[in-house]
Amino acid sequence: MKIIDVRAIQPVGKNSPPDWRTSLGQILVAIDTDCGITGYGVGGGGLAGIHVVKTVLRDLLLGQSPKDISRLWDEMYQSTLAFGRKGLAIMAISGVDLALWDLKGKAEKVPVVSLLGGQPGQQLPTYCTVWNTQDLESIDSHAGYKLHLGKVSNAGQQDEMIQAIETARTLIGPDPLLMVDAWMKWTVESTIAISRAIEPFQIDWIEEPLSPDDLSGYAQLSEQSAVAIAGGEHEFTAAAFTQLIDQKLHTVLQPDVCWCGGMTELIKIYKMANRAGLRVCPHRGAEIWALHAIAALDPDPLAETGRPWMTWVTGQPEIDGGLISVTDRPGWGLTFDEQSLELVY
Is the four-CA dihedral 115, 121, 307, 333 of positive or negative sign? Predict the structure, then answer.
């Protein structure tokens, strides 16, 4: 089996946010082979990511066997080293890598979860991310809920944030998990203060309170925060996660498989985290790309609800009663009607 083409497009998602999540949003990568099998994956970077796929990565992969995914990943990383290492180039590689895993599953007629040593059909608990406490009054049942406070970040708003977290706990009751997402907008001092104030509300983690680059700040939080710290959604490659893991800067690691380098890198991150006794909880893990890894590799599985505007990815498993599972269909278990997709570009 040889690769005969590598393609990338950016389909339109219904109600996609009017910001970078659309302009630099998710792309669909397709890899065609000479035996008639096409593998699909989702990466990021919008038009810039598409350009990297269509030029550098396509030229590298044409004529190669798709079977040795690890070797191909290393070659793609090396080919983008001068302008990559993190960000858009790795987002593009992520989509290609996921398409290669889809090809492998389809060629072997098994789902990706089986390639990873797991079994399809396992019921996995989910948690739902909400942007305000009002959503918690009518939302479906889940194992947990994450309150996103990215729109509330000023130092003078600490009381407002603490009140929102207390309200969230009151609304969901004492049993479900409750997490808080600060979206990189807090400081070391405010995080410590808020963590102490919300500790009585049984908060499972505070997510990304600081910039991903503020490793010294995270080192302080690892020692002084009264609530566990989570992060890694905006980090790239297993190499970058090594420092987070070795220094235990986060209690919960949250790589996004469509951004961090694909399944190949997510597997490495899981292995390192497991050895260090840290938890992995992939960003938007209920989306099919990470869900296979959660089902196969995670000793404490928990899948975050997906991006609601990714409506062009049809056929993903539905959440039922707060639970989700992967099917036994080969690869990711998805098919795409490319001709019917409306494109951003």
Answer: positive
Half-sphere exposure of 126 (CA within 13 A, CB side): 27
Q: Which residues pair with 45 in a beta bridge?
A: none
Tell me the fold of 115-324. Answer: TIM Barrel (3.20.20)
Beta carbons of 268 and 244 less than 8 angstroms apart: no
Count of CB atoms situated within 10 Å of the CB of 241: 25
Please compute Rg for the chain using Cα positions.
Answer: 20
Catalytic residue of the set 142, 250, 283, 292 = 283
Q: Where in the chain is the domain with CATH 3.20.20.120?
A: 115-324
Joined together, the tokens standing for residue 11 give 């389909």
Does residue 51 carry a catalytic annotation? Answer: no
Q: Which long-range contacts (CB under 8 A, 24 or more apart) does 150-157 make?
A: 150/181, 150/182, 150/183, 150/185, 153/182, 153/183, 153/185, 153/186, 155/187, 155/190
Considering the chain, tell me which residue range(s) the CATH 3.30.390.10 domain(s) occupy: 3-109+336-340
pTM, two decimal places: 0.97
Which mean pLDDT values do the consecutive 10-residue runs of the chain (345 residues) have?
98 94 96 98 97 98 98 98 97 98 98 98 97 91 94 79 96 97 95 97 98 98 98 98 97 98 98 98 98 97 96 95 97 95 90
Given the candidates 3.40.50.2300, 3.30.360.10, 3.40.50.620, 3.30.390.10, the CATH classification of the domain at 3-109+336-340 is 3.30.390.10
